[in-house]
# Entry
Amino acid sequence: MAKREAASASAALDAAVPLLPDDARIPGFRAAATYVNGVAHRDAGLVAAGLTQLDAAVPLDPLFNSFDFIGVVPAVVAPGDPLMVRALELVDAGLGPPNVDCVQTMPEICGNAGMAPHNTEGALLLFGDLYAKGGRLSDAERWYG
# Structure
């Protein structure tokens, strides 16, 4: 079931990219779906395509699309893997300037507004988990706290 859903999501988002060319989030969603589809099917070509798409999507909307990368890649890579290092770089960039006041400036993305009523709590745990897996325990403890 999960493999079929991963393939369906990937196909739907492949179709959505040209339909919504001005929405910079769609390529990030597509990239994450391609990557997950590749992981689910143990298809190295799809995994590589997903990573290529993620690399292309992040600059389109760095804060938003970084979460597409950190939401799917760290879950399946080893702590010392270069992709885990990249994930931590993206987290660090997302938590630094100019995004430090994101909760005030973009509450629908960085706060609990809109369709994600517990976004903040989930994000704080995600940051802690990423830093813990990456071996940055003091950073993990700070976000868990």
